[in-house]
Amino acid sequence: MVSPDPTPGPGPLSEAAIEGMVVAAARTAHGPGENKVAFDRTVVALAAIEVDPSTPARPSAVIATMLHRSVTSLYGRGWQPADVAHAVKGRWTLRAHRLIIAIIANEARGTDAVHRAPQPWLTQLEELGVFEPTRGIIVGGYDNAIAGWARVERLDPDETITVGLQVLAQLLTLPPQAVLIDPPSAWGATNRGTVSKPSASRGDIDAKVLTRIRALLAKAEGTTFEAEAEAFTAKAQEMMTRYSIDAAVLASTATAAGADTGIESRRVHIDAPYADEKARFLAVIADVNAARSIWSPQVGFATVMGFPVDLHLTDLLFTSLLVQATKASAEATSADRRFRTPSFRRAFLIAFAHRIGERLEATKQHASADAAQQYGSALAPILVDREVAIEEAVSRAFPNATTMNRRRLNADGWYAGRAAADRAQIGASDAIARQ
Length: 435
Prior knowledge:
By secondary structure, this protein is mainly alpha-helical. It has helices at residues 15-29, 36-50, 59-76, 81-91, 94-110, 113-116, 119-127, 145-153, 157-171, 207-222, 226-256, 275-288, 308-334, 342-375, 379-397, 411-422, 430-433; strands at residues 131-132, 137-138, 264-269, 292-296, 301-306.
């Protein structure tokens, strides 16, 4: 391909000229048009301009401005702070990840996110280390975020320009997503009053119940005995199913009084390796817990849709079971070097998920039967209505969603995965009886 000559002409370059060079370099840094030679030449030229005292505009400041504009644009096209950070982390280095965090902080300060952003947005900023709720301030990402980041990282101009261009190139190619949370352009003057008190009808989980579920899952992750791990997980699923049903009944009553009990969506970021297999695992767990998961492999996250309680419980159980599956996979491959292959691990994870799903579904049916005895004939229509509502919401949000293609699996990995999930009987056990 032919690229513009990055060599500066006579006299200092204007900001517009530098921006043109940055755009040209970004086009060669990411995607099918990638051209390392052209990219490196432009980096050298921009680095020379960066240290030229006669140049009024600095390339680092231009790139910082363009990164800020790109993040703002992505927010308007359905992306959220955690999504942007996850995408950069998955494609580039931790150094690049720290750069995008600084840009996100800069954008949050500029939009007064502390006083205007909805709570889910602030929660993401807090998890990224950008928002300190106790002090009510945004941390990091001051003017010319790249310059501050480069000083902390102790980078020379070449390294600074290279990483900045790589991140910018990626942001410019990210596809639009469904808007799940209002972006800054849609925020009101204040977020005061937008965070309601916990309510089971809204989907908040009682703190005591949540503590018990987490304790069971922590014991499942910590034990070295698979029988105990299975029993702890089964008991947690039983509690989750019963709590979800109780919340559904309460919500159906609240709906008549005009309460907001609508379906919500949240994104679950899934890291490599074996992201497709982990996404299948998430889908299995979501199905058991009355939610639906849609995997977007090109951006590395799944969108889980359902009622708030079920979303929370799905996320909680997926995190725990992924820890257990990883541990079981490591144990299965430690004894035989022949099994330390990607194909074995992929098959192991899928088989583990499939069998765990079968067992959790059996536990769910048992808990549902107990609930039906309490609520009688009124329960079935409530659960059916919720299931139909979720399916309709998924169809509206993802009209072109397709089933993930099946692939040929490593037989050893498949049987080892099922065995790891199937060695113990799930049900009442000494481990559970002691709870």
